[in-house]
Amino acid sequence: MAAERRRRGAEGPREARNRPRERGAARGERGGRAALGLVAALGLGLAAAGSLVLLWGRWRAAARAVSPHPAEPALPPGATGPDSAPHRFWGSYRPHVYFGMKTRSPRSVVTGLMWLQQRDGAELRHTCEQSDGLQRYGWVMHDGQSFGLQDIHDRGLLLRTEFVKRPGGRHGGEWSWRVTARQDGGAAGSQAALISLFFYVATDGQGTLRPHLEDGTRLAAVSGTSEELGDFKVTFLRPSTDSGDDVPYCSYHYLDAWSPGLHRLTDVVRSSLSSRFVFTPPDGSRRRFVAVDKFRGLPGAEEAAHSHLLLHQVTLRLPAVVEVTFESGSVRERRGALAGPVLTAELARHQAAFERRFEETFGLEHKGFPAPQRRFAQAALSNMLGGMGHFHGRSLLRSPLHHHPVSFPERSLFTAVPSRSFFPRGFLWDEGFHQLLLARWDPELSREVVAHWLDLMTAEGWIPREQILGDEALAKVPPEFVVQHSDTANPPALLLALQRLLGSAPPSYLRRLFPRLRSWYEWLNTTQSGPLPYTFRWRGRDPDPERFLNPKTLASGLDDYPRASHPSEDERHLDLRCWMALASRVLAEAAERLEEPSEPYRHMERALSDNELLERLHWAHELGAFADFGNHSGAVGLRREVGRATPGRPPPAPRLVRVVHEPPRPRFVSALGYVSLFPLLLRLLRPDSPRLEPLLAAMSDERRLWSPFGLRSLSRDSPMYMQRNTEHDPPYWRGSVWININYLALRALHGYAEQPGPHRERAAKLYRELRHNLIHNLYRQYAESGYLWEHYSDSTGRGQGSHPFTGWSALVVLVMAEDY
Ligand SMILES: *[C@@H]1O[C@H](CO)[C@@H](O)[C@H](O)[C@H]1NC(C)=O
Ligand SMILES: *[C@@H]1O[C@H](CO)[C@@H](O)[C@H](O)[C@H]1NC(C)=O
């Protein structure tokens, strides 16, 4: 599958990396030995002290690499708890399950839904999996706070899952769920469809749950107590039909079991299922079905019991409606249960409020978008909001000073995720794009997310790129990709979002952030510096170039986008330089708002956006575009190599290795694509720059970057266009259309179209056409496939990679709104 980019994030041997720092340490030790000789006469005591100091220095550097930043946290303690932020305490913060809720606490009690269609070959559904092959699922509406409505289409079944919250009490309020199950489409099966819905409550290492049974088998309610919820009660109401009548016949089962952790809940339920049950409605059509029976333990699981699971199963015929209420013991006077007609009214009120707020925020109706396209945009925003998660746990970090990974102290992260099925966890540069959209919907929410991310910073000023916090997140990542390497950066795209938030952010907020922003900037400015003044270089490229057509640069976020064929310390990376220009500008603006010294940042901003210097360092005449510089050969290929046979052994499988037809030399990298556009994308080029014309020409040329579906990542006439990197690595950023970069392109074109300059008209025309193409294709693909996708084919427009991908692909909402 193509969508392995971030999983591969931490792969490979890292010995070759961060040599400078290791060399520095070695020099220090040699110096220490010399000093030892000189001071021998002064006695061993002093010498021992000297080496102790050196050891201490090294120990301290190693500790800093993996310890938290010393500044006060960007989020004041308790800021996200039920006292300070009751309105956000409960939420659909479990994006990796189809439907579930939890609180923003480290070891939250969780609730969730599973289902099973009672027919041959049907599978238990719980966590979002691409392999489930659902026709579509996702939030149709979600306000990011108190209400959401989701439709799930699963082979003839339509499940609508809705929640609504109600403030009250001292523990983050109360909520209700409504799950409506119907036949999907006209084609009903020969038998009236039978379905089981499983509602559960589970603990995560703290709190107690008590079942309340009716008639021996129906789990009517669960009462419980936990650290941050106090006393509470979850009630599973009796199902009704669409019209509100009682369902004529259904069957109840329940499970009371212990799981090694939340990440094993599906296994616990699956292993408790038995097919010995018979559905016997009064009309006589008896049939066998599957239900939870006795839990007999997980095969091979010796892990301690950690999560108490109580699960209510109801099996019934379609259509049916089931409601669940969560009530807090701290609510003294309740106006009555939030269920039935009261719930219907509340849901309707929230729907209307969502519609209104959506139009007020994005104005798509006003712009003339028809209803189906507005619903598409609402779904895109809602899925980003409904994809927000709260994660808690420890990252595994590794610095060049450590032989083994070290775990970072426990941290919580409140963040959106790129994909509920494939990347249900936080990714640093993705988040910058996510917050561009969310900052428009709810600036307060965005400010909180940015602060959460900055609080993950280490003492050195590094923020690990991929956040795998807690067992559930970990369960989705192969072990070899878990460790994060402390010399690997990632674009500081969060600063794009911060720039948008600066105007309305309270000074007290900025003041808390500022020391961390400064450290982040310094870390980038020093650890990723390039070979010449005002140049930059991504660290951590694949160290073993012979294995790849072009060694990847995961740090850049653009993974396999072609760079210098032979990684070296002489490289200068254009995109990173442009990111640093943006970072300098945002730091300067923040400093000015706080009346802190801003001149060092302004100075950097001026130097990095000096168009003449930019051209000297990065303009490649032969390419007619900006480019990276490095030790590069334009003539490389992959060849199948048959290993030499050893007598008595089976012949080794042939493998692809790289062949270099022409030796590399220091030069500009011959690739025209997204990286070449960065001075335009981040608007460093002056509107009167003579380089604007060739870039606009490349962008509008069908043989190069223009496609009817958006700008492609790599020129069609580039030698690496759509080339595999190894036999297992299909092309990724080598031609496909990516929405985050297209958003930046539109933003820039919109800007150039508004400023006087010789290319104003051309920018405006390109802007209109690109915007039209992008909206048109994303909408069409969504209507046809049911999803937003990770990237799009530049030849057919088809969605590719992981899905649903309502991370940065949801920026299409801002494109529709022309909000840049
Ligand atoms: C960034 O690094 C350069 C080169 O080391 C240095 O001259 C400059 O002062 C630094 N800028 C800031 C704002 O720290
Ligand atoms: C470029 O790479 C080749 C192959 O690794 C190496 O032999 C050569 O010294 C490098 N040239 C420079 C200038 O780094």
UniProtKB/TrEMBL annotation:
- Which organism is this protein's natural source? Coturnix japonica
Q: Which UniProt keywords apply?
A: Endoplasmic reticulum, Glycoprotein, Glycosidase, Hydrolase, Membrane, Signal-anchor, Transmembrane, Transmembrane helix
Name of the gene this protein is made from: MOGS
Q: How does it sit in the membrane?
A: Single-pass type II membrane protein
Specify where it is mainly localized.
endoplasmic reticulum
- Which Pfam families does the record associate with it? Glyco_hydro_63, Glyco_hydro_63N
Q: Which InterPro entries match?
A: 6-hairpin_glycosidase_sf, 6hp_glycosidase-like_sf, Glyco_hydro_63_C, Glyco_hydro_63N, Glyco_hydro_63N_sf, Glycoside_hydrolase_63
- Location of the protein in the cell: Endoplasmic reticulum membrane
Q: What is this protein called?
A: Mannosyl-oligosaccharide glucosidase
- Source domain of life is Eukaryota
- Stretches of Basic and acidic residues bias are at 9-30
Report the sequence similarity comment from the record.
Answer: Belongs to the glycosyl hydrolase 63 family.
Pathway(s) per entry: Glycan metabolism; N-glycan degradation
This molecule's function is given as: Cleaves the distal alpha 1,2-linked glucose residue from the Glc(3)Man(9)GlcNAc(2) oligosaccharide precursor. In the context of N-glycan degradation, cleaves the distal alpha 1,2-linked glucose residue from the Glc(3)Man(9)GlcNAc(2) oligosaccharide precursor in a highly specific manner.
